[in-house]
Amino acid sequence: MADPNPVFLNGEFYIYYLIDTAFHDWYLTRTTDLINGTFPQRVLEATGDAQTQDQWTGSGSVIKDKDNVAHLFYSGHNLDFSPVEAVMHAKATDNTLTKWEKQVNNTFSGTGSYSDFDFRDPDVFITNKATTIGCY
């Protein structure tokens, strides 16, 4: 287990994390008390494909927008690409937040003085007024 990415939704902690094997797929366990939890399940797979930005996946964050749609932002890593790392996006396709559809056209990366090798682990947030989405 690596890089836990927790979010509190619907009265539960959703703890997304990477499995430190293969290409670092995303897994999820849920808990209401941080002691007892659900059996871990894979929710987002790295492709393992040298032709895609998310050959490997890295950390990120999960948010819900003003329309109550859940979004998962994660790192895509591929040594054969330039930039090597980019922020990628997936949308939940169900209310359990276990099924995600990748939005490959929403991929973005740093430019100019940003490192193309260390542009990862996005922390995405929505302002209190739900008018602005930010990322750092």
TrEMBL record:
Keywords: Glycosidase, Hydrolase. The keyword Transferase does not apply. The keyword Glycoprotein does not apply. InterPro entries: Glyco_hydro_32_N, Glyco_hydro_beta-prop_sf. Transmembrane segments: none annotated. It comes from the Bacteria. One of its GO terms (molecular function) is hydrolase activity, acting on glycosyl bonds. Residues 1-129 form the Glycosyl hydrolase family 32 N-terminal domain. Pfam families: Glyco_hydro_32N (PF00251). Belongs to the glycosyl hydrolase 32 family. This is Glycosyl hydrolase family 32 N-terminal domain-containing protein.
